[in-house]
Write a structure and sequence with these properties.
13 strands; alpha/beta; Peroxisomal Thiolase, Chain A, domain 1; 2 domains; 343 residues; 5-stranded mixed β-sheet; 10 helices; 4-stranded mixed β-sheet
Length: 343
């Protein structure tokens, strides 16, 4: 079995509400629509607070809190995984930097990054759960979902600044024994990872992303002069995409793990649009009391939003030990990752 034994969260600086964001950026946007449709009322953005903090700093702080809550020694961690599409550097991996800071040097510890846009954390949770379950020499893993997209925003970005924010969430996974789950087993309350389901459509790669800085489009003086860098919205995303996708992903996942939907106690979705989450919960015929939304206080934090929402739900008592939880995360590209666990 694999179980979550600690969670952590970090958001840099004091929160910035919509009115202050307009003052700090000089961007005039529709505050009322942002709050009523997306549910975003505040966010944390390090560089707007004058903080010299970036991806590795966020990840480290969330990880340290998760380690503290798990009540383990940092040297007990056998694997560090950073889930993000806003890394500290292209190379080396952000996870290596965090490992060095937390463990202080060379260890027989694994470290790698997983990048699947904003679905990265849930994809990493699925991947790492399987790694722990199949390697008896590993006991603890630290997964960090982290986002620093505001570092990629160009000055005056009317699309990006109202939505994207900085933050990190971390979980400590512990291997507890045999992870074999037989189809048809009753849903017990013993903590464990139940399974995951991925969905991908790589033909949608050219909607939104950070396209400059890699091998296809290196950052050059010409690109800087023309503004052809940072976060770029090449095509408008379909407004109903997640409304159509998330219910079928949940259905496929529950069929895969052989669990009826009414035995799921809590659902967590990508925290970018509260109205979409409400529509999806209605389609699933589930009450809003069985979900948690944190975009009102943290904005949209990409790969960090699911672990941040999970941490918040646990801290507020909305998720308790023994609860069955489904997570669904969407990322540009297109990638959707889902996972189910008993907390």
């Amino acid at each position: 079995m694999v179980e979550i034994v600690g969670t952590g969260i970090y958001a840099p600086g004091e929160p910035i509400d919509n009115a202050e964001l307009s003052r700090l950026t000089g961007i005039d946007f529709d505050h009322e629509r942002l709050e009523s449709k997306l549910g975003i009322r505040a966010r944390h953005i390090a560089h707007l607070r004058g903080l010299d903090e970036t991806t590795a700093d966020f990840a480290e702080r969330a990880a340290r809190l998760a380690i503290e809550r798990a009540k383990i020694d940092p040297d007990e961690i056998d694997l560090f995984v950073v889930a993000t599409d806003t890394p500290e550097y292209i190379s080396p991996a952000t996870s290596m930097i965090v490992q060095g800071r937390i463990q202080g040097g060379q260890r027989f510890t694994g470290a790698y990054d997983l990048g699947a846009s904003c679905s990265s954390f849930v994809a990493a949770l699925d991947t790492v759960s399987r790694v722990l379950a199949t390697d008896a020499t590993l006991r603890y893993a630290c997964i960090m979902g982290v986002y620093n997209m505001p570092a990629y925003l160009r000055p005056g970005d009317e699309f990006g600044y109202p939505i994207f924010a900085d933050g990190a969430g971390a979980v400590i996974l512990r291997r507890t024994g045999d992870n074999a789950i037989q189809a048809g087993d009753p849903l017990t309350r013993r903590s464990r990872y139940l399974g995951g389901q991925l969905l991908t459509d790589g033909t949608q790669w050219d909607f939104v992303g950070v396209y400059s800085g890699g091998t296809r489009q290196p950052v050059t003086s010409e690109r800087l002069e023309t503004g052809d860098y940072g976060l770029q919205l090449l095509q408008r995303l379909p407004g109903d995409r997640n409304v159509k996708l998330w219910p079928i992903v949940v259905e496929r996942l529950l069929s895969k793990i052989n669990r009826p939907i009414d035995e799921i106690d809590h659902f967590l979705f990508t925290q970018i649009n509260c109205s979409v989450i409400k529509q999806v919960m209605e389609i699933l015929n589930q009450p809003m009391s069985k979900t948690t939304m944190v975009m009102d206080r943290y904005g949209y934090t990409g790969s960090a939003c699911i672990p941040m929402a999970f941490h918040t739900a646990v801290a507020e008592g909305r998720i308790s030990r023994g609860d069955a939880v489904v997570m669904v995360a969407s990322g540009a590209g297109l990638a959707v990752a889902s996972g189910a666990l008993v907390y």
